[in-house]
Design goal:
Layout (H helix, E strand, L loop, with lengths): L1 E8 L3 E9 L5 E10 L6 H16 L4 E6 L2 E3 L2 E3 L14 H9 L3 E5 H12 L7 E6 L3 E7 L2 E3 L30 H4 L1 H12 L5 H9 L3 H25 L3 E5 L8 H10 L8 E4 L6 H15 L8
Parallel strand pairs: 1-4, 4-7, 8-11, 11-12
Antiparallel strand pairs: 1-2, 2-3, 5-6, 8-9, 9-10
Length: 305
């Protein structure tokens, strides 16, 4: 048995857990800690937050496995939409965590890690599967022929930046009408502020939707419709068996139901099975720990950079 210090860096929170690894598919979380992501654009603040969170846990671990929002390119954290990193970009994530912990460090995108966790949670039932997280942003992880696809530059799965509305809002990535700028929690909040004014949050918009407010319903339905279009595009391109939906928005009450309603209007070939995520908030932590254990056991670990 080895002990993995797993880290999940998201747009709103950073989670860390000590995980006992018995095999690449069997593990047990023994300690979990959570802090808010400090979205200031100041790399020193992120470094301090990581040191505060990881420093006390490192002595109990054999290695560190990190699932992070954004693109992991040769150990550096970048982003198509830097807004999801609080304006932070080109952050030397591998080197910073290695210095804090003095342990081997392995990096992967958070949606990629969660996709692997969901693939295992569904008992490897599907050879070709996509995990879509609808949260602060919109991301995806792809399993094709039972293999996690990461890409040579870590970009694979950034499906939230596929186009769904050429006339839509400007996305932080530089294009107009991406899924993320219409469907994400950040996008829902922006649409809510435009309609309801003030500092309306995405959660408040969703509560208004559940209460039957017609304007909030239009915002949430537009989000779900965009995700349905994304599912259709991925399915017709990759011949997927199933889509697993997670994230704070994706798992909100009736959201998957809205996505399915939009998909029903499409021809059968665009409609894979649509399933809820099973690993909940631990998907990134478990997925990256399990993935590193798998590839390390094969002597092919490509993420120690």
């Amino acid at each position: 048995m080895t002990i993995c210090l797993a880290v999940d860096i998201g747009g709103t929170k950073i989670a860390a857990a000590l995980i006992e690894m018995y095999s690449a598919a069997k593990s047990n979380i023994v300690a979990r800690h959570l802090i808010e992501t400090r979205s200031s654009g100041d790399p020193l603040l992120l470094t301090a937050a990581l040191a505060e969170l990881l420093g006390p846990l490192a002595a109990s671990a054999d290695y560190v496995a990190v699932a992070s929002t954004g693109i992991i390119d040769n150990g550096v954290l970048t982003a198509l939409n830097p807004q999801n990193l609080g304006g932070l970009d080109h952050f030397p994530l591998h080197n910073v965590i290695a210095q804090i912990t003095d342990l081997p460090v392995y990096l992967i995108n958070d949606a990629q890690g969660a996709a692997w966790a969901e693939y295992l949670a569904y008992r490897q039932e599907f050879a070709d599967l996509a995990f879509i997280t609808v949260s602060t942003g919109v991301g995806a992880g792809l399993i094709l022929n039972h293999k996690l696809i990461t890409g040579s530059r870590g970009v694979a799965g950034h499906a939230g930046h596929m186009l769904v509305d050429p006339q839509g809002p400007q996305c932080g990535c530089g294009r107009r009408g991406c899924v993320e700028v219409i469907a994400s929690g950040r996008a829902i909040a922006a649409a809510g502020q435009a309609v309801f004014g003030g500092t309306c949050s995405g959660m408040q918009v969703y509560q208004l939707y559940l209460q039957g407010d017609a304007r909030a319903q239009a915002i949430i339905r537009r989000s779900a419709d965009a995700v349905a279009e994304l599912i259709a595009n991925l399915t017709i391109t990759l011949d997927l068996d199933a889509i697993v939906i997670g994230g704070g928005v994706g798992l909100a009450e009736n959201y998957i139901g809205l996505v399915k309603q939009a998909l029903v209007k499409m021809p059968d070939v665009y409609r894979p099975q649509v399933l809820p995520a099973r690993c909940d908030i631990d998907a990134g932590l478990l997925g990256v720990a399990q993935w590193v254990a798998k590839i390390d056991g094969q002597g092919k670990n490509n993420f120690s950079l």
